[in-house]
Fold:
Amino acid sequence: MTASEAAILCLVAVIGHLMALFWLSVEDYDVDLSRDRIYDLPIKDPQVRRELKNSLHTPMHAAMLVLALFAGLFDARTFGSFLLTALLVTIWAEIWHYASHRAFHVKSLHWIHAEHHKSRLSSPFTALSFSFSEKLVFDIGIIGGMAVLGLFIDLNFFGIATWFVGYLIINSYGHANFEIRGETFMTLKGTVLTSTVYHALHHSRYTGNYGLGTRILDRLFGTEWPDSAAVFNKVVVQKSPLQGLRETVDTPETQP
Structure:
């Protein structure tokens, strides 16, 4: 194992916790980034303790990447292979997350996902709070899927590791109880990409909005909450947080 490989593995192992602490500090110290609160509700101490306990096995993905290195997988090291691998793992992660996430909401499999959904009001540490089984399935799906693809294409370890770093950074504030994106987000990028508001609705309402980074598969399979954009507008443009977990917002189609 090279020094650069070891360094990024260490980063992959700890970045999720570091970013969760950062975004919690942003909220605790009322930094300007946290001004657009999604739910005007408190997160209770038992939830925080439970999420911290569950986060202990979060670095599982780093251990799997170590095993992949020792197995000789993902050994390409050109810049082109890095870019291709980063693109392919981004696409595959979106597909795998949506497929497994929807499967976890089937009654017979929901026991795998139930721990994550104990947090109806999500926090940055909710992004690290999964059952051991769910984290295992997610990581094996991502890394194992790329290993199978690597039988046909030369893949780059750093492309996969960099995806995990980006995922852990984005997923941390993607579970915060505030929105950092601006008022113009929904006019272009928000028509394709998810937001913190978008995923907050999944937690509070328990279903729908299954996508990881994009709305594409939710729209394709009809699993998107129709008031997602309206809730974003209420929180970010109107500066009016939701008052209850079951609160919905009228869309132009539902208004009289």
The beta strands are 36-37, 178-179. Residues 39 and 242 are 5 Å apart (CA to CA). The longest strand covers residues 36-37.
